[in-house]
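Minimal example, chain plus guanosine-5'-monophosphate.
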Amino acid sequence: MADCIFCRIISGDVPADMIHKDEMVTAFRDVNPQAPTHVLIVPNKHIASLNDLTGEDKALVGHIVQTAVQIASSEGLAERGFRVVANCGPEAGQSVDHIHFHLLGGRALGWPPG
Ligand code: 5GP
Ligand code: ZN
């Protein structure tokens, strides 16, 4: 989608600090990091929110989570701990309408979230 910032990052139109790219997903550092490690893992195809996933996306979601875990490991977070979170809709604070999973780590993370 031409007006989607994450589609534009995936296509290379907009620069980002890329961590990983394969045929299904792209991962890049958040421009406004909330922790020492803050990476966004996104599907290469535009899906607006978790509400729009279908049964055909099960492998995709599994791959996103696996990719997040691999990046956490490469960032040295496997033993320390990390968080993977996806905000869906207004009350969760979703601000970009292209599914993204946040990988956060590198500091003690509070719970419950705000
Ligand atoms: P949300 O609030 O939707 O869960 O998360 C959106 C995230 O995307 C935010 O953490 C925000 O900082 C990040 N973000 C928004 N625009 C850009 C951008 O152009 N580049 C990068 N790298 N991150 C972005
Ligand atoms: Zn998009």
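The chain has two helices and five strands. The first helix runs from residue 5 to 11.
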